[in-house]
Amino acid sequence: MSIRDKILSRLGAKPGDVIKIKRDGEELVGILMPSHDFSDDDIVVIKLRNGYNIGVEVSDDTEIEIIEKGEISKRIIEKEIPFDPSKPTISILGTGGTIASYVDYRTGAVHPAYSAEDLAYSVPEIFEICNIRARILFQLLSENIGIENWKILAREIANEFNKEDVRGVIIPHGTDTMGYTAAALSFMLKKLSGPVVLVGAQRSSDRPSSDAYQNLYHASLVASETDIGEVVVVMHGESSDTYSLIHRGVRVRKMHTSRRDAFRSINSEPIGKIENDVITIENDYRKAESGKVEVDDKMCEDVALVYFYPGMRADDIPEKKGIVIMGTGLGHVSKNLLSRLKELIENGSTVVMTSQCLYGRVNLNVYSTGRELLKIGVIPAEDMLPEVAYVKLMWVLAHAKDREEIKKLMLTNIAGEIGDRTLY
Q1: Tell me: domain 303-410, CATH 3.30.1330.200, correct?
Q2: What fold does the segment set 3-68 form as a domain?
Q3: What are 336-361's pLDDT values in tens digits?
Q4: How confident is the model at residue 76 (pLDDT cuts 50, 70, 90)?
């Protein structure tokens, strides 16, 4: 038995009790929290009055006193998930990220959680609106999620929907690459019978300012109560806890490193919002279909996303089957790169032009550089986000047979990634 467990057992302390720890002349008072797999054997985790969780190193001579007996729900401790046949069922497929993370009190580092049930029970109010089927697919921070993970996600999402009793699927995901995953799933999943809701948190659950609770609760409302039949992202709509927004998966981008309202719909309005537990749909969306959800996850991995910069040399552009360039303004690069792009295209590469500006539409007809890019075969990406064009080109190259078909598919609005008009 660990030092921690020996002391707590001798004292009769249980998770939920308010305890006082005396150590090195200092007194700390807080609610005793359950230990987890990242807790060292001599670490007691308590929640302070200010809402922060801290880990306190203890030894055999550490004084601990129970101030007040409390009880965290036995059901939560034992991870018993309730079921009400009168409520809709949603699936939570965990992937990791800040929303599903524990703090390692030995190092201060944040690690992905081991259990999807931990995530569900972090917001017990979810069980008042729906049944939960929860499991972990990956334990990865989002920078480590790649193409093979996208494919597994797409197949597992389809499997959940095709069990017939699932109304919607929630994907807790790290925020840094959530836009890439949302775009990939938007192209891979066909005939969705309910919403696929990606959700994350900018601030971890042990912080008083965490956005994890509201984001997950609102994602559950969207998954269980709407007839959306596409991939969406649900995150805070402003820095306070007033409302959340429903973003289309191919139109959303993280626009700030740490703000809770970092996610914005680009060149498009959000599908809707959630405020005071009420969902308001404000714009068009693809409705859920009946029948079996299909997966088309063929992807060409030989694609690069290249950011143009002044002074860029020709050999800075890699030789790939597909290349998406983030050009300046309306979609430009310096003239010294034209011969390199022409050579790549003649050798079989597909080159697609997007803009670093993000907002607005690429137009290669306005200036001479743009017209030269069109002449050598560069494909303008309309008002697509660069990362969406990158993911889409992977999907297109795995499906198209020749250059004309590639161009046609890239300029076809498949999942809402291209707008009929530019919004300001």
Answers
A1: no
A2: SH3 type barrels. (2.30.30)
A3: 999 999 999 999 999 999 999 999 99
A4: very low
